[in-house]
Design goal:
7-stranded parallel β-sheet; 6-stranded mixed β-sheet; 34 strands
Length: 724
């Protein structure tokens, strides 16, 4: 089977009639609890308390709205239950979410009065149901705003984020009053730091604890905290031998190679063999302040990862040229604001680079269930604006070296930011070598690789590659990844940092191969192809392995973009303009039908969509939800010319489709931009008409059906026997 020629995959284009309108179902309103006078009075009393809390601020800054937290009942978390009759533009509009089931609403004296009236007098079925959905209404206070670790004053600059609202006038009022508060504290008004279009972040050089509490009491402040610091994990690479003239052959003349940008410590400028692969360089750090060991190790893996590692098949069989961006000084550390400046400069200067490798993480910190990290959100917005794919490390866990399976399970080894970025490809590490004293065996997750899921239970990491193995004390001999150090030596080291560039290489090659049709070479298509390849190689997928290794490792570059004779792969690139897309007939190969017309086949389907995002909504960060149904069609009994589809290929890693919203998110992949489906048929429906349906659902406050939702769906049908 390995000698089979690789054949092209088929890209399916849009046809007229694919988009289908679906009339909204009639709503039935049923209260979650009985709405009594006592319940109404309690909620009105809470609204009054919010107004009294903010009365001094409303008096001093009449045009500046404050923020309240609204908790919803557990059974009322779905977007269809959002209490819009209570919280809307005429009262207190929703401007974000703090955690699942807790909304942030913008409040003014007039808006709070309107809210109290609606709670007190609302009598329609919809209003009563919405009143019953509300648990509590509380003011946003300084305890919600000021976040200093262990109560200590930060040694460096402080990050101050203001609440964001869609209205320009409200944002200006909040900012102007912020300036007054800073003046009261005898602080200069700082310049903004550009994270995303919907965040307003400022750097304050020094802020003592008492001043932070006074500033945190201002109703426009959302969060005050130290700036995060990121680092490359640089261990002492074990030198194996010196380079020879043929260690790193230069790119072959006239032979196209992919291009990968590296945000790192920079490559060794004195290594001529390595520099032959560097297409361009941006030094954000003076050369005298650089230590190029980590960047050189990463870059050489992108140039010649497989040959450096003895031709092992777990390493990419292709090479990419490098754009070298030096963002770290010799300490291997950089603050979040400085790192963003380096990334922005690189994206503007090198628009030809579509894949950026980021082998770094926030030291000793994990992602949170309820919110995306600010840096991950910044990467996601830049990925969408520039049309690039960030490939990021899941992070190294160094408090202990975990055996496999984890025993006992760890509770603080979640993916480290920015590995929680929704649109990035996050990479975990697996051991490709082992000795008798190694912590894990070959093929198991590396003892230091962090686990998913990411924020809001998104699939993270999606993929894994070799990153090395070690003994219980961290030593590694002949179990690490081999590359180059900054002294021209062939060296061995371990870390998720070194698994990440292996995926970047495959992604860069895929973009190069797809460049013949620039409109089709989208980041989410490349992501879908890589995940799909790994999915087909690793199925069946089982937790907890998926939490650490994702869908596993993709195949060779050829296998990612082509298929074997005993399989057929279709790629659907859809700009979903309505709620429902239906393509039929979907072709099932005749050669997979038995004489009795029964289907014998394996079907794999991977969906990746370019979901809109909004970091102000915490666990509701992903603003659109797309599902796929591949199944058999029958004429609809209700609507002439319409079809009813029966699912035949089932969801993987989250098949729950009914239940409370919290359960659907945790166990049903709801709102996740990556979804997987699989089924093996032995006597499947052979003569049926097949179709593919996509359904789109938008968040309550997002609801923008005119905006296209870009979706990539990869479907492979193969003969389980490998013969047809």
């Amino acid at each position: 089977m390995a000698d089979e020629p690789l054949l092209p995959i088929k890209v399916v284009l849009r046809s007229e009639g694919d988009d289908q309108s679906k009339p909204p179902s009639p709503r039935e309103y049923k209260p979650f609890v009985e709405v009594t006078d006592k319940l109404r009075d309690r909620l009105v009393g809470e609204v009054t308390a919010v107004k009294e809390t903010f009365a001094p601020s409303f008096a001093r800054f009449p045009g500046v709205p404050a923020v309240a937290k609204v908790s919803l009942r557990q059974e009322a978390l779905a977007k269809s239950h959002r209490p819009t009759t209570l919280f809307n533009a005429d009262t207190c509009p929703v401007i974000g979410a703090d955690r699942l089931g807790t909304l942030r609403v913008s409040v003014t004296p007039a808006g709070l009065d309107g809210l109290a009236r609606q709670i007190k007098t609302g009598a329609k079925d919809e209003s009563i149901t919405h009143i019953s959905a509300v648990g509590t209404i509380r003011p946003w206070t300084v305890e919600d705003t000021v976040w200093f670790p262990d109560g200590k004053e930060p040694e460096g600059p402080v990050r101050c984020e203001l609440f964001f609202r869609p209205e320009v006038e409200a944002n200006e009022a909040v900012y102007n009053a912020f300036g007054v508060m800073l003046n009261d504290l005898e602080l200069e008004k700082p310049e903004p730091i550009q994270y995303t279009p919907r965040t307003r972040v400022y750097q304050i050089e020094s802020l003592p604890r008492d001043a932070a509490n006074r500033l945190g009491d201002y109703v426009g402040d959302q969060r005050i905290e130290p700036f995060a610091e990121y680092r490359v994990v640089r261990t002492a690479a074990r030198v194996i031998t010196s380079m020879s003239p043929d260690t790193l052959p230069p790119p072959a003349p006239g032979r196209p190679t992919g291009l990968v940008g590296i945000i790192d410590t920079g490559t060794d400028p004195n290594n001529k063999q390595l520099q032959a692969w560097v297409a361009d360089r941006l030094d954000m750090v003076d050369r005298s302040e650089q230590n190029n060991s980590h960047g050189s190790f990463v870059a050489a893996l992108i140039a010649h990862g497989r040959s450096l590692n003895g031709g092992r098949t777990g390493f990419p069989d292709v090479s990419c040229r490098i754009v070298d961006v030096v963002a770290f000084d010799r300490s291997g550390r950089v603050s979040e604001d400085e790192l963003l400046l380096s990334i922005d400069e690189a994206l503007d200067r090198f628009p030809e680079v579509k894949v950026w490798n980021i082998s770094l993480n926030r030291e000793r910190e994990s992602c949170e269930d309820e919110c995306i990290s600010t840096f991950a959100a910044a990467l996601d917005h830049r990925a969408q604006r520039h049309g690039v794919l960030f490939v990021v490390a899941s992070g190294n866990y160094t408090r202990t070296f975990r055996p496999w399976p984890p025993s006992p399970p760890l509770d603080d080894d979640r993916v480290s930011p920015p590995g929680d970025a929704a649109h990035a490809l996050t990479v975990g590490s697996v051991a490709h070598l082992a000795t008798e004293s190694s912590v894990v065996r070959a093929g198991e997750p590396s003892p230091f690789s962090r686990r998913g899921p990411g924020a809001a239970y998104l699939l993270k990491p999606e993929l894994s590659q070799p990153g090395g193995n070690c003994e219980a004390d961290g030593r590694y001999v002949q179990t690490g990844v081999v590359s180059l150090d900054d002294s021209g030596n062939i060296a061995e080291d371990i870390g998720v940092s070194y698994a990440t560039p292996l995926i970047s290489t495959l992604a860069g090659h895929a973009f190069e191969e797809l460049a013949s049709d620039p409109s089709g070479a989208s980041p989410h298509l490349v992501k879908a192809l890589l995940v799909h390849s790994a999915f087909m190689r690793s199925h069946p997928l089982e937790r907890p392995l998926v939490d650490y290794a994702g869908c596993g490792s993709p195949g060779t570059a050829g296998e990612v973009l082509r298929c074997r004779q005993s399989s057929a792969t279709l790629v659907f690139q859809i700009a979903l303009r309505s709620r429902v897309f239906l393509r039929h007939p979907f072709p099932m190969p005749e050669c997979l039908l038995s004489k009795s017309r029964k289907l014998s086949a394996e079907v794999f389907m991977t969906l990746v969509h370019d979901t809109p995002i909004d970091e102000n909504y915490g666990p509701e960060y992903c603003r659109s939800h797309v599902t796929a149904t591949l199944g058999t069609l029958t004429p609809s009994e209700k609507r002439k010319g319409a079809w009813t589809i029966t699912r035949q290929v089932n969801p993987v890693l989250g098949g729950l489709e009914e239940g409370y919203e919290a359960d659907l998110i945790e166990h049903g992949s709801k709102w996740s931009p990556v979804k997987l489906y699989y089924r093996k048929f032995s006597r499947g429906p052979g003569d049926a008409r097949w179709g593919l349906r996509l359904q789109r659902f938008d968040r309550q406050e997002y609801g923008n059906p005119q905006r296209e939702q870009r979706v990539s769906v990869v479907v492979s049908v193969r003969d389980p026997k490998g013969a047809a």
